[in-house]
Amino acid sequence: xxTCSICTLHTCEKPEVGHxxxxxPVLQKEFMEEINAKYAPYLDFFSTCARIEAEGYCQWxxxxxxxxxCLRMGYKKIGLAFCAGFRSEAKIVDELLRSKGLEVVSxxxxxxxxxxxxxxMTPDCKIHPEGFEPMCNPxxxxxxxxxxxxxxxxxxxxxxxxxxxxxxxxxxxxxVLVAKDRVLAHNPCGAIYTAKGYSKSKL
Length: 203
Hints:
Layout: H1 29-37, H2 43-55, H3 62-72, E1 77-82, H4 87-99, E2 103-108, H5 138-148, E3 152-156, H6 162-169, E4 174-178, H7 189-193
Parallel strand pairs: 1-2, 1-3, 3-4
Helix pairs in contact: 2-3, 5-6
């Protein structure tokens, strides 16, 4: 079992050989060599992302980094899977991508207009149980972008779990541009920073 989140040594970040926790992955040489080999098909993509990290470090916002990945990788057709609550934001992202010469294929979360009850959900799964409520449809979003043959997909504000299903079904590599947090202006880290204080009663 790995426990990197509570490690206090951080030896993996240092060039010199030091004292490692007994369960440190660094000690699993064969395992790490097998993992490293898996980067071979993605080396161009991974190297490009590393260069962007280095060039824009603490200067470029994530949106700029995302656009740079698309341009430097030579992607032409970009998928945009967005939440209906992010229509204004999606329009801005769409316009920015198009201004860079990229083609945009977009899919809103409510695509298909399917009532939650039509796939077996019960009324307690609805925000408004008494009437029609369209389900978020992340698998449809992914399949629509797959059918369009997108080179790279961008996730904009999909709900927790819905983003999981989208990422699982997306054939193209994808990145999350915005993680939804309705309470904290889409800044999930706010709850982490105040977990032992202001947000304690909410967590």
